Amino acid sequence: MNSFIWNIIRYEKRLEQLKQDLILDPNFSLNYFPEQITLIELSDLFKINTELFFYKYDANRDGIITQQEMIQITMPKQKEYQQFRSEIGSIQRLQELIELTNEYENNHSRQDKNITIYLQYILKMYREGHLVLELEI
Is there a contact between 84 and 21 (Cβ–Cβ < 8 Å)? Predict the structure, then answer.
């Protein structure tokens, strides 16, 4: 379990670094991303398998990722990076983010995914104030 948590932390760190890198790249912009896109259209656009990425980020499971959802996916958590969002450029570097997500999702068993979902749920409940975490020292 301990190594699993460290794997999640390493993945989240790599993902966040990639988001920061994307947002700082003047040649990257989501303005050229369609208003909405399906799994098949996304795979055709990037010429790679995007199924795991799509499954992870299609939060409402409507079979469509909107431009607004894609902005949320690619936006770094740190506010100081968010100001660098470019209005010009292309979406081609987004492929790296898709490939990293696919790699992570592909390398973990269903049990690991269930633990991840559970941990994400606990963090969400904690952030919303529905849960208090007490640490024993």
Answer: no
